[in-house]
């Protein structure tokens, strides 16, 4: 199995400048390759440029501009071109599927924060000084950079990436390792229902409160954004010191909420995987759930629109994004795989409207957000607990059908 590790780097001031230059030059390569593809399609009778054609040109590009392109790893530059190729592949896939295409865009320096090295030892070297008590990673053109390695890396390192987040630099590793020993069986199965009022409800009646990290930071974030809005928009290299600090303040608040959300997701998923052998959850289409409602034109007044509940939906969308369901489910599946647990997604339709006692399905069975009252047999319970029970039963049916 493949496992990722993320460590904080401690570069010197000179190394910070060099790492910034490396990001800038890879961003320039990405944008130049994108421009070439656009021009070829628009002006050369809709000709498509492939990754292979652009990769062949790298040797000439490095020789033409040795100071900005020739000093970096050839493999990392190929990885940047592959990144663009994947963006175009995703674009064409969305076009064929009838989705919003999302044509690949040019990247500003602020939006290009990662350089990938496809193989350890090719342009980079993890733990380049094994006899030194301080862990270091070496990058071509940068040198040996100190790393704050807070846990051991198990397995063989396959890829290495450099990531810039605010003031900090990180090294991200992927290591190939053997399947770990599964946890001892607990004999317990559980279904979970994700929500807004409560982050998670189990079929056993346990409620995990929603921490609402984003909402707690709203007051500070509004103040920081108001301070940032007072500055006129200028190029990054012409910002004043106060402007840069205001930008960093806003970004820092967003990063803090993101880290808190990740921490909560890891701890919650860890408890579920440790306590249960089988976990069933709703296969929610989170992206569709958090979409803004479509505008409704007023047929009687051209140019105006009817009320469509966009304000209320915007608040719900913020709550869904603040809960971080997608991140939590990704972490849950990864931890379950490492622990030898089974996780199954089920259809979420009518899970909170179906009576677990008699099977009656009706919208009226759920009169409020929390209450469930079956109109057929009179069964009463918490609506989220009912949803989790139905999710568990559907998951067990899918598991038995899969084994059969």
Characterize the structure shown.
With 404 residues, the chain is an alpha+beta fold. The protein has two domains: 2-176, no CATH class; 189-403, no CATH class. It has eleven helices and 16 strands. The strands form four sheets. A seven-stranded antiparallel beta sheet has the order 2-6-7-1-5-4-3. The two termini are 27 Å apart.
Q: Work out the helicity level.
A: 40-55%
What global shape is seen? Answer: globular
Count of helix runs: 11
Sheet of most strands: 7 strands, antiparallel
- Stretches where pLDDT is under 50 for at least 5 consecutive residues are none
Give average pLDDT, whole number.
91
Q: Could you tell me the radius of gyration in angstroms? A: 26 Å
Report, as a whole number of angstroms, the end-to-end distance. 27 Å
The helix/strand class is alpha+beta
- The topology string of helices and strands comes to EHHHHEEEEEEEEEHHHEHEEHHEEEH
Topology:
Blueprint: E1 2-10, H1 13-43, H2 51-56, H3 58-64, H4 74-97, E2 114-117, E3 124-126, E4 136-139, E5 143-148, E6 156-165, E7 168-176, E8 189-194, E9 198-202, E10 207-209, H5 213-216, H6 218-229, H7 241-275, E11 278-282, H8 286-289, E12 296-297, E13 305-306, H9 310-323, H10 325-339, E14 342-346, E15 371-373, E16 380-382, H11 383-403
Parallel strand pairs: 8-11, 11-14
Antiparallel strand pairs: 1-5, 1-7, 2-6, 3-4, 4-5, 6-7, 8-9, 9-10, 12-13, 15-16
């Amino acid at each position: 199995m493949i496992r990722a590790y993320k460590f904080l780097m401690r570069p010197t001031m000179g190394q910070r400048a060099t790492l910034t230059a490396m990001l800038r030059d890879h961003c320039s390569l990405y944008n130049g390759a994108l421009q070439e593809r656009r021009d070829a399609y628009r002006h050369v009778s809709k000709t498509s440029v492939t990754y292979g054609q652009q990769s062949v040109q790298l040797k000439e590009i490095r020789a033409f501009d040795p100071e900005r392109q020739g000093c970096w790893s050839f493999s990392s530059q190929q990885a940047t071109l592959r990144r663009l190729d994947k963006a175009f592949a995703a674009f064409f896939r969305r076009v064929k599927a009838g989705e919003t295409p999302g044509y690949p865009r040019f990247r500003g320096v602020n939006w290009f924060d990662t350089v990938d090295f496809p193989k350890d030892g090719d342009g980079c070297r993890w733990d380049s000084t094994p006899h030194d008590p301080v862990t270091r990673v070496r990058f071509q053109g940068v040198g040996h950079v100190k790393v704050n390695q807070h846990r051991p890396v198990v397995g063989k390192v396959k890829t290495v990436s450099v990531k810039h987040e605010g003031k900090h630099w990180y090294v991200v590793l992927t290591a190939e390792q053997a399947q770990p020993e599964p946890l001892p069986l607990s004999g317990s199965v559980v279904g979970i229902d994700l929500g807004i009022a409560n982050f998670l409800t189990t079929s056993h009646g346990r409620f995990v409160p929603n921490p609402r990290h984003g909402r707690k930071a709203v007051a500070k974030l509004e103040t920081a954004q108001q301070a940032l809005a007072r500055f006129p928009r200028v190029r990054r290299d012409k910002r004043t010191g106060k402007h840069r600090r205001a930008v960093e303040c806003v970004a820092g608040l967003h990063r803090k909420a993101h880290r808190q959300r990740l921490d909560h997701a890891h701890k919650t998923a860890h408890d579920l995987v440790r306590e249960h052998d089988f976990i069933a959850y709703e296969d929610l289409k989170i992206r569709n759930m958090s979409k803004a409602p479509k505008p409704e034109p007023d047929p009687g007044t051209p140019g105006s629109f009817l009320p469509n509940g966009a304000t209320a939906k915007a608040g719900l969308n913020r709550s869904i994004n603040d809960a971080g369901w997608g991140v939590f489910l990704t972490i849950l599946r990864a931890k379950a795989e490492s622990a030898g647990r089974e996780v199954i997604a089920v259809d979420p339709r009518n899970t909170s409207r179906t009576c677990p006692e008699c099977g009656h399905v009706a919208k009226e069975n759920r009169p409020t957000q929390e209450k469930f009252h079956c109109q057929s047999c009179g069964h009463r319970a918490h609506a989220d607990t009912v949803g989790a029970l139905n999710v568990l039963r559907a998951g067990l049916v899918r598991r038995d059908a899969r084994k059969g």
